[in-house]
Amino acid sequence: MLFTTVQQPLTAQGLTLFYEIKKNYNKQILMAKKDSKNVFIENRDIPWEFVAQGMRRKIMAYDENVMVVKVEFEKGAIGSLHQHYHTQISHVESGIFEIEIDGEKKVLSGGDAFYVPSNVVHGAVCLESGVLIDVFSPMREDFIQRNKNSP
């Protein structure tokens, strides 16, 4: 699908909104961006949710195109091997992790990052307690659905 993106400021009633115009062939789709009251995300306002033994996460922000998730691991916690159609880029905020991507393993620590292409098997073993910041494109609908179904 080919499209171009142009951002144009529009001032209405004192709020500056940004509109993204996507041209897909000869069609134009106008999508309103959230106003400035909703674009700043503060860590303290987002609750942790249980993922698995020794793991919890915060869904920091998302729209239909991208999602940022903070995942905290205790030493020994395992992010089981799995795959999904989403592209993933992860930043090791802290700790030490053995990351496996498509059968290749590498030990990464704070400041490192890794890239997971769509539908590639990957997982993580936490060697020293830490945090991964995961970015998914498009957003992980399954995370939102799971959150809605949680008590």
Q: Any key phrases for this structure?
A:
151 residues, mainly beta, Jelly Rolls, 59% strand, globular, disordered N terminus
Can you give a write-up of this model?
This protein is mostly beta strands. The chain has 2 domains: 5-38, no CATH class; 43-149, Jelly Rolls (Sandwich). The protein has 1 helix and 11 strands, in the order βββββββββββα. It has one helix at 141-149, and strands spanning 5-12, 15-24, 27-32, 49-52, 55-62, 67-73, 78-82, 87-101, 104-109, 113-116, 122-137. Strands 4, 5, 6, 7, 8, 9, 10 and 11 form an 8-stranded antiparallel beta sheet that branches. Strands 1-2-3 form a 3-stranded antiparallel beta sheet, with no helix packed on it. The relative contact order is 0.18. Mean pLDDT is 80; it is low at 1-36.
Helix content bin:
under 10%
Instruction: Determine the CATH superfamily of the largest domain.
Output: Jelly Rolls
DSSP strand (E) fraction? over 45%
Task: State mean pLDDT (0 to 100 scale).
Answer: 80
Largest sheet: 8 strands, antiparallel
Shape verdict: globular
In total, the number of domains comes to: 2
Concise overview:
It contains one helix and eleven strands; from the N terminus they run E-E-E-E-E-E-E-E-E-E-E-H. By secondary structure, the chain is mainly β.
